[in-house]
Every structure is written in C-alpha cells, then in structure tokens.
Design a protein that fits this description.
159 residues; Multidrug-efflux Transporter 1 Regulator Bmrr, Chain A; nine-stranded antiparallel beta sheet; 12% helix; 2 helices
Length: 159
C-alpha cells in the first residue's frame, strides 16, 4: 500500500465533536448526532464528509487504547459566517499529507492504520507531524459495506 504525498491547502470545516478513546470509541454516536443536522450547514462545499482527529503531540509515542483524543464529524464550508447551534468551526491547516486509499468495512480498518504507523511510516522518508489527521468520506463511503471507499490523510514532514 503506497500513499500519494499531497500538500493540502487550508480548509474551513463545520461540524460536531466529541472526546473519546480507541477503547471507548464513540464514532457512531458522533456521526449519529451530526448526520440528521448536516443540511443546516448553509455554505457547504462539495458532498464529502471529513472525519477529523486531533491527537496530543505525544499520543503515538506510547500508544494507549485509553488515551483520549478529539474527533469531529464535519463538512467543508466557504466561511464561518453562519454556524448552526451546537456545532463548531474547525480550521484544517494546510501542509504535507500521506494519503492512503482504503476499501472495505470502515470497522475493519484497524490493520490498515497499524500498517501505516508501524510499517509504512518508519520505513518512509517521513515522520508524523503534529497536525490534524482526517479521512475523506465521499460518495462511495458506506459504513455497512465491504465495498466502502475512503481516503486516510496522515500529516507528515520530511525526516
């Protein structure tokens, strides 16, 4: 699995967020609360959804399934002029990313992430950068399908 390396330009996102851990994963709950309200976002760009994670700088140094992080369910917008109640704005900073294509059940993506962090990254010309991680969930994303497709964006910088 070879990623493409891409420079992302800054994006503006609006959505909902939750604190969770891998041991106490609340992703389903987060998206269940966001999806019925997604059409309240008036200045949306495109049809994709962004699943964004914010990890502490040392999160991956001593990985702990119980360590908490912030996860967002979002869409891209033109501006932050109108933000629906109980939603927040998030700026996705630009920068260098390793972009991996994933096809399969989203709930079965664990081995892909393990490969990225334990095999690809240590053997690449890159190190993890302390920026937001995210997945782009496009038209071919389906949480219940083995044919589901998404892109996994990992923030990197040159070694």
């Amino acid at each position: 699995m070879t990623p493409r390396i891409e420079t992302l330009v800054e994006k503006k996102l609006i959505g909902k967020r939750m604190i969770m851990s891998f041991a106490d994963n609340k992703t389903f709950e987060l998206w269940r609360s966001f999806m019925p309200r997604r059409n309240e976002i008036q200045n949306r760009i495109g049809t994709e959804f962004y699943s964004v994670q914010s990890f502490a700088p040392d999160f991956f140094n001593n990985f702990d399934m119980n360590a908490t992080f912030e996860k967002w369910a979002t869409v891209e917008v033109t501006d932050f002029d109108i933000i629906p109640n109980e939603m927040q704005a998030l700026t996705l900073p630009g920068g260098l990313y390793a972009v991996f294509f994933y096809k399969g059940l989203p709930s079965a993506a664990g081995p892909t992430f393990e490969y990225i962090f334990k095999t690809w990254l240590p053997n690449s010309n890159y190190v993890l950068d302390n920026r937001l991680h995210f997945e782009i969930l496009g038209d071919k994303f389906n949480k219940d399908s083995v044919d589901s497709e998404e892109e996994i964006w990992i923030p990197v910088k040159q070694k």
